[in-house]
Amino acid sequence: MKYIRTLTVLTDAEILQREIPLFRGAVIHSLGEHPNVYFHNHLDNDKYRYAYPLIQYKRLSGKAAIVCVEDGVDIIGQFLTEVDGTLTIGDRQVTCNTGRIQPARILVQTWEEMFSYHISRWLPLNSQNYQRYKGIEGVVEKVSFLENILKANLLSMLKGLDIHLEKELILKITEISDSYLIYNKGVKMMAFNADFKCNLSIPNNIGIGKNASIGCGRVHQLRKGKDINNNTNQ
């Protein structure tokens, strides 16, 4: 088991879902020539940091937000101190003042009980498993296929945060409320909104799976039973 630090920076800048990558670009641009690698995940020599993103850009309640995880919490001060209150998002300049800052410290582990979550804009299918998914005829089998991918996404997130489980991760998708196509760098991809239950405590609003750093795969707990996301930093 391991405690995970998160810090959510909520701004007053209204953005659309499709503008999240532009918001990310605006933040990086505002930090000058040498932003910390966690803001953009690009290494020297045109290499990429293939690891769990510790700075994630979101749209929460219609406003631009940044969710910081673990070491990302320590470097967000670069944004808070250097941004002057305005950002150029795409072709428009917006006021971007910091509203609330929400710190949290969550014990991430498997439990005896199950917790309910919602995941939005989740991208489980690449070009290969999309064809496999389309070839599955039964609804139950399709859901089972997606459950395996969701479980793998969670395990990948845990590995990236150096969390080792003491018990088996148990997961069940309870409802797929929507599926739709989105464009990712000009490529169509199928996104899902779904409810699921699992025995893992997951910090609110972090992303899992593809494009977790730009608003995809955002997970939040559904308030039923034990609230595992009300443990603020001490």
Widest sheet, order of strands = 2-3-1-6
Strand composition percent: 35-45%
Helix content bin: 10-25%
Number of helices: 5
The ordered string of helix (H) and strand (E) elements is: EHEEHHEEEEHHEEE
Give the overall pLDDT as a whole number: 89
Query: Any low-confidence stretches, pLDDT <50, length ≥5?
Result: none
Notable features of this structure?
single chain; 234 residues; alpha+beta; four-stranded antiparallel β-sheet; globular
In short:
The chain is an alpha+beta fold and 234 residues long. The protein contains five helices and ten strands.
Layout of strands and helices, then pairs:
Layout: E1 2-14, H1 20-30, E2 55-60, E3 63-69, H2 71-75, H3 77-82, E4 86-89, E5 92-95, E6 98-108, E7 110-122, H4 127-134, H5 139-160, E8 171-184, E9 187-200, E10 218-221
Please explain how this structure is put together.
The protein has 234 residues and is an alpha+beta fold. The protein contains 5 helices and 10 strands, in the order βαββααββββααβββ. Strands 2-3-1-6 form a 4-stranded antiparallel β-sheet. Strands 8-9-7-10 form a 4-stranded antiparallel β-sheet, with helices on one face. Strand 8 and strand 9 form a beta hairpin. The longest helix is centred in the middle third of the chain and has 22 residues.
